[in-house]
Amino acid sequence: TTITALWTINGYTITFDTDGGTTIASITQNYGTAVTPPANPTKEGYTFAGWDTSIPAVMPATDTAIKALWTINQYTISFDTDGGTTIAAITQDYNTAVTAPADPTKEGYTFAGWDTSIPAVMPATNTAIKALWTINQYTISFDTDGGTTIASITQDYNTAVTAPADPTKEGYTFNGWDTTIPAVMPATDTAIKAQWTINQYTISFDTDGGTTIAAITQDYNTAVTAPADPTKEGYTFAGWDTSIPAVMPATDTSVKALWTINQYTITFDTDGGSTIAAIKQDFGTAVTAPADPTKEGYNFAGWDTTIPAVMPATDTAIKALWTINQYTITFDTDGGTTIAAITQDYNTAVTAPSDPTRSGYTFAGWDTTIPAVMPAADTTIKALWTANPSPSPEASSGGKSDQTAPAAPNAAPVDSTTIKVEPADPDLEYSIDGGQSWVKVPEGETSLVFSGLEPDSEYEVVARRPESGNYNASPASEAAAVTTPRTEEDTTGSGIEGDITGSAIEPGENDTTGSAIEPGEDDTTGSGIEGGDEPGEGDDEGGEEIDDADTPLDGGGRYNGGRTARDDDKEKTEDSDDTNDGTDPNSGKQQETTPTGSSIEPSQGAIDDNTGKTEEPTTGEVIDDPDVPLAPADEEESWSVANLAIAAAAVISSAIALGVGGKAGAAAGSAAMKVLSAADLEENKKKTRKQRIIRAVILGIAALLVLAFLLTQDLGAKATIADKWTAPMAGGLSAGVILTWLLKKMR
Question: What span, in angstroms and rounded, lies between the C-alpha atoms of 28 and 161?
């Protein structure tokens, strides 16, 4: 059996979207049937450009929507300005906004609008628009600049203009207009100004023999500047016979000068000679010259300017000229050494000669005082002598003559530890310690410096004439009292300069516990040695180093250039100046001389009295002389024990740190260290050297026992890593300090 399917054909629709154009009806018909395209739509301002999808030739098997495509049209608006400025035509798409152009302009007219309004949007047609105009009136005004008035002319643009008659003006000649009057009215208001040529007049000046004054020629009625007054030798200007006008008059004028004769004065400066009265009289009159002046000690040599025969036209000062006389001072030494006569100008400074000498006599001065300046006469001065007494056979001076004491020296402080004598006489010697030691001025120098002195202390500087072949040393001069300035003291207890706490401990950089000890220039280990010298270095006779500035320096125990002494009572170091002359800077005592009797020069070194050899100067070195007194036992080793106190305090600090822990323990330990350090120093001063050594050993053993105990303890679970290492590290440091100190004491 054959079964055949039955089908019903479908109808489909084609719709047309004209996008604002004329409407086109939809096409609905069966599938596959032929489709007839409709006529093209139209749209104002546009040209049809087809469909977005081609219309099918037969009905497709689906509904179809087809949309029209359009091309927009452009239109033009043109402008006729009727002789005005050109305005470009506007060409643009239909229905787009039209921007109205700026109004046109036309010379002599005012724009009155367009004959047709400019559309807001472009219409669908080309458009022509024409400008409308109103004629203008303009004015020509006349500025006569002070002349007769001329009325303004007002009329329509481009109409004929009739020029007015010329204006007139007093004192001026009309010279036309600054702008030509136009033949027809221009398209603008016009201002025209009259031009004038001013007349000129002259004022002439007759100065009657005075300086010439040029005539003034200038425009009428302009301001006249009066000329400077004329001058005439020997006269004073007294004005003009006619006043000079303030402005130029309208006529030529002549003016004449008036004069008054002057008086002048000739004054005479006799430069210390006899007085001569001044001469005052009229200019040009005859002058009578005065008699010549006189002056003691001089011969008149005339005037620096010739006295005029007639009075000049100026005050005149004339000065006398003198030739100075020379005079002579002759010295009669009455058998003494010859002194050359002094011949020089009168009243010039006289330099007194050195005193003469005479065998067996002492110079006692001159019978007449040597004048300070040369007198106005030759002078003879005679020496006075005192016979010297015959020396006794047992006289210690060996028959030498005595000398008079010199004047007190001129001394002043330089700083807190230095005094300077200036000027210093190389023929004298000076002392700052009451005459116990004497120092001469270094060769070639004109001053002498005493250094290494105590601040805020009074010193007396004296001078004397030294012993020589024929003379004993003179008595000391009067003393020059000098006080060294005060220095600021450090009261912090840090042990730096000016420390008054007695701790003598210098804290290290960024060290807040005070435990850091800086070796070097100021050793604080207790050895009393500066620069790291070991105790007792260079001391093989006597075995004791000197560390007290109060210790007398007798025998070989003298200080030489660069030597340092320590005064434990004052907790400071005193450094002698490298230019020291051998004088002890603390006691002021003079170093003894060499076996030849010569003095020790600055920085020469010290003499060992046992061997007679000179030892080289060193820093902190002590001369090994058995005669040097040792420092008192109760003041010698306080700085060494201070180190021991620090070591013990460090161990205690470690123990406290274990119990308290952290920063609090460290702070508590630091406080304990300071207390123990101060207590140990105070206690140490009461002990002898032997007692201090025994005490130090006991404290050291105790510190090591505490350290051993700490190292064997279980710190407990609560202890941190830092806590567990605090005690060993602090203890190790303490043990190192203690062992170093003990090794130094055993050497």
Answer: 86
